[in-house]
Design brief:
The chain is about 20% helix and about 45% strand. The chain is built from 3 helices and 11 strands. It has an 11-stranded antiparallel beta sheet with strand order 6-5-4-3-2-1-11-10-9-8-7.
């Protein structure tokens, strides 16, 4: 992408992400590990109430959900519940910002990453390489793919230092529709 294309792309994404109050989407997650012949595939639904609450509701192959709400992370693993207080824990706060920013596409206004941009016939891609040592331990690169004509992320790829990765594809996205507050209750 040329410098002018990058600036327009960033401006459009940041501007559009500020207009997103809620987002729901179906997702398919592929976990690719070098020692497995096939990826582990999970499916579910994402609910985002920008910027404070998010729920990953996995429905296949197991019932599992993770809720980020009011400074806490709540996990329900087939009925086994746990929680982590994020407030005051810099690593978890950064993780929460990273996840919300990845989904909304609003990661460009940060000094925590070296960001490069590219494009194909069908998409614009932002590649974010972390600068912080704590993040580099877990993430080598984040790739955000925006299909042409869309201002929300369609694909997130989190590449680990080992080159194993998690790829999440979002479909059936719906913006700024009412989400029942109970969705974000643990």
């Amino acid at each position: 992408m040329s410098n002018s294309e990058i600036e327009k792309f960033k401006k459009d994404i940041v501007s559009d992400s500020k207009k997103i109050q809620t987002l729901t989407a179906d997702f398919t997650q592929y976990k690719v590990m070098s020692f497995l012949d096939k990826p582990i595939v999970s499916k579910g639904k994402l609910y985002l109430q920008n910027p404070k609450a998010m729920r990953w509701n996995y429905t296949q192959p197991i019932d599992y959900n993770v809720i980020f709400n009011n400074g806490k992370i709540y996990i329900n693993d087939e009925g086994k519940k746990s929680s982590v207080d994020v407030q005051g824990n810099k690593k978890f706060e950064k993780l929460n910002q990273l996840i919300v920013g990845s989904v909304s596409g609003n990661l460009f206004d940060t000094n925590d990453f070296v960001i490069t941009f590219s494009k194909t016939d069908k998409a614009r891609i932002a590649k974010l390489q972390p600068k912080l040592k704590d993040v580099k331990k877990y993430i080598k690169e984040i790739q955000l793919t925006f299909y042409s004509g869309q201002s929300t992320v369609t694909e997130v790829k989190l590449i680990e230092p080992s080159d194993d990765y998690t790829k999440i594809l979002f479909t059936n996205k719906s913006l700024n529709q009412t989400i029942n507050a109970s969705v974000f209750n643990p």
